[in-house]
Design goal:
- This is LytR family transcriptional regulator.
- InterPro entries: LytR/CpsA/Psr_C (IPR027381), LytR/CpsA/Psr_CW_biosynth (IPR050922), LytR_CpsA_psr (IPR004474).
- Pfam families: LytR_C, LytR_cpsA_psr.
- Belongs to the LytR/CpsA/Psr (LCP) family.
- The chain is α/β, with parallel strands linked by helices and 483 residues long.
- The chain is built from 13 helices and 22 strands.
- It folds into 2 domains: 347 residues, LCP protein (Aminopeptidase, 3-Layer(aba) Sandwich); 90 residues, 2-Layer Sandwich (Alpha-Beta Plaits).
- An 8-stranded mixed β-sheet has the order 1-12-7-2-3-4-13-21, with helices on both faces. It has a 5-stranded mixed β-sheet with strand order 17-16-20-18-19, with helices on one face. The chain has a 3-stranded mixed β-sheet with strand order 11-8-22.
- The chain starts with a helix and ends with a strand.
């Protein structure tokens, strides 16, 4: 759902801006009054920079039962429509965190859901440590500290709420950026009321379930198969975790499937090109959604089609198991493994220091061997990698092989992982005969240009099969069937 909102603001506005006669007037009338945040200013430059013009987006779902000014939502509404207990539940935890990567040249968009109970080092916006908590608590911890601080200074009402929430956003951005090792360029935030209001504008919403479900906690009560939901049911669909085989992880895939369905419906209904159809959606966005202040719709004019055209694959970051910390059930994670997975899938530079065995990108030499059979493929690949900052090595040819491989010498592991992710070259592996500081790419019959759309995403690396620790990926472009 957050993706649908984000695309509505970015992609549609960009299309209108570029295509209408009175474009600027139309754009301004739709977007005037959006709630924006400067929270990204606190974390810029604190993660390895992009090697190209790709964009990373963080979608934040806040579990708050309050409005933008911090007022409790009406009790009856929370209980009957949201089926969410009372306004005292949820506080300011981020129950949805989805990090998306839009490649610079278009093509497959990779998205990772971060399970809300992952036990990590949480940070404040200035990078100082909060301690180890569930990742969802970074926002709430910073909000509470800021709220107490500003209240003691005499700040009150909506201003107190706004400043406290801004501290929460900064903490969430800082924590996610540190956890994944990639920069965040833009973000969007919505709470339960916002989700409900937008679902009301878009209803009925089509979903598909593999099994019938009935859950008194979320209010989910659905048969097996394809069905259409109203706003109340849609919220229950994405909130249910009790009664599902994988609990929160299945709920994460519900959220991914919902985003896929909504973006597909918006495109098929022709909403993107109609200011009249957009107006109701934008009115809700202005009331319930927070967007970062730095986005420029022109930057996304060419990227929006990838978000709405079924060219997105959602993964769930793996966990290592379950445990009890701070007397709470948590997901245990391997931070270095998480960084490696995300950085390879996003084609991002690693954050490890040279002492950890990582050669800087500019110091890594890449050799490309053509086992693909296509004339000039090795030269084309090497040229594209040099543009990203790698040093040019040699090119050559070999007998045709089925799969693309990436092998690295001493000190070049991170660079090899980045290259493998960009070329969809499987998992990078050490090559005993590869010189130190070198990466050797051998193109196979499966090689396609990294910016070309593919029928399915190459799964990020893990210790086992693709997505072995987190379940199957959810592919956008229709109505995925989930638990």
């Amino acid at each position: 759902m957050l993706l649908a909102l984000r695309v509505a603001v970015w992609g549609v506005s960009a299309a209108l801006l570029l295509g209408c006669g009175a474009t600027w007037y139309v754009y301004r009338s739709l977007t005037r009054g959006l709630t924006t945040s400067d929270a990204l200013d606190a974390v810029r430059g604190k993660a390895p920079r992009h090697l190209d013009n790709s964009v990373n987006l963080l979608l934040i779902g806040l579990d708050s039962r309050k409005d933008m000014n911090g007022n409790d939502l009406p009790r009856q509404f929370v209980q009957t429509e949201l089926h969410a207990g009372s306004s005292d539940i949820g506080y300011y935890n981020t129950n949805t965190l989805i990090l998306m990567h839009i490649p610079a040249g278009g093509g497959k968009v990779q998205a990772f859901s971060i399970p809300r109970d992952d036990y990590v080092q949480t940070l404040n916006g200035d990078g100082s440590a909060q301690g180890h908590y569930k990742i969802k608590e970074a926002y709430a911890n910073a909000y509470t500290t800021a709220h107490d601080k500003y209240a003691a200074q005499g700040v009150k009402g909506a201003d107190l709420e706004a400043r406290s929430r801004e501290a929460g956003r900064e903490a969430t951005l800082s924590t996610v950026q540190q956890f994944t090792g990639v920069p965040i360029d833009h973000f969007a935030e919505v709470n339960l009321l916002g989700f409900y209001d937008i679902a009301k504008v878009l209803q009925p919403i089509t979903v598909c379930l593999k099994h019938p479900v009935k859950d008194r906690y979320s209010g989910a009560d659905f048969p097996v198969g394809v069905q259409q939901l109203n706003a109340r049911q849609a919220l229950a669909f994405v909130r249910q975790r009790h009664g599902l085989d994988a609990g929160d992880l299945d709920r994460t895939r519900r959220q991914q499937a919902f985003i896929s369905t909504v973006t597909h419906q918006l495109k098929s209904a022709g909403v993107w090109g109609s200011p009249a159809k957009l107006q109701g959606l934008f009115d809700v966005v202005k009331k319930d959604v927070v967007l970062d202040s730095s986005w420029n719709v022109l930057d996304f004019a060419q990227q929006a089609p990838d978000l709405t055209g079924g060219n997105v694959v959602f993964h769930t970051l793996p966990i290592e198991g379950f445990g009890i910390r701070n007397r709470e059930d948590v997901n245990l994670v391997d931070p270095e493994k998480i960084k490696s997975i995300v950085q390879q899938a996003f084609g991002a530079p690693g954050s490890a220091s040279p002492s950890a065995g990582t050669t800087a990108v500019s110091s890594t030499t890449v050799d490309v061997i053509n086992g693909n059979g296509a004339r000039g493929a090795a030269s084309d690949v090497l040229s594209s990698l040099v543009k990203l900052g790698y040093s040019a090595g040699t090119t050559g040819n070999t007998a045709t092989q089925s799969a693309t491989t990436v092998r690295y010498g001493a000190g070049a592991q991170r660079a090899a992982q980045q290259i493998a992710g960009r070329l969809h070259g499987g998992t990078a592996a050490p090559g005993p005969a590869v010189p130190a500081g070198h990466v050797v790419v051998t193109l196979g019959a499966d090689y396609t240009h990294p910016d070309a759309p593919t029928s399915s995403a190459t799964a990020p690396p893990s210790s086992g099969a693709p997505d072995a620790d987190s379940g199957p990926a959810v592919k956008a472009g229709g109505v995925p069937c989930v638990n």
